Amino acid sequence: MTVNISYNNLQGSIPNISSTYVSTSMHLGSNQFEGSIPLFLRNYAILDLSKNKFSNHLSFFCGDYAISVQIHLDISYNHLSGDIPDCWKQLNSLIYLDLSQNNFSGKISTSMGSLLHLQTLVLRKNNLVEGIPFSIKNCTQLVMLDLSENKLSGSIPDWIGTKERVANIKFGKKSILWKFTNHGLLFKK
């Protein structure tokens, strides 16, 4: 069952509706929810909390009752700040992860490299620094990587050019379409 109350003007904190509905998909995006992300939301296969005002996330991601979203997690366009938590190992079946348009700072979490099934990683428009961790190389299913509008530095890792697939990579304000072949990286317009 899917619960979808997106695109309303609901405010405040989210009441505990986990005992009311047996659901695998929870869509709460585009509302005015705020405060901490409730722990009861951690067990959905698909969880969309985008475009709200959440500001506290650490107990949601890491802790005794850590998140176990299995496929799709979108927490973009919120007020989350601080370092991106380094506790992604328990989410190894995650396919889609969007943490864009927040105020995360520090380095990209090295444990994101344990997301072996990840196809889409969007970290756009945060305040992330340094470079792309080598561990992201382990995300062999990755076809979309958006790191644009951050404060990253250094060079693009060589391993990005060794994937055999078409991928959309964004490092700046323009999208770049690349064709990955056995012979390396080819630019496509």
From TrEMBL:
Coiled coil: none annotated. Its main location: membrane. One of its GO terms (cellular component) is plasma membrane. Signal peptide: none annotated. InterPro entries: Leu-rich_rpt, LRR_dom_sf. It is a single-pass type I membrane protein. Keywords: Cell membrane, Glycoprotein, Leucine-rich repeat, Membrane, Repeat, Transmembrane, Transmembrane helix. It is found in: Cell membrane. SUPFAM superfamilies: L domain-like. Belongs to the RLP family. This is Non-specific serine/threonine protein kinase. It comes from Vigna mungo. The lineage of its organism: Eukaryota, Viridiplantae, Streptophyta, Embryophyta, Tracheophyta.
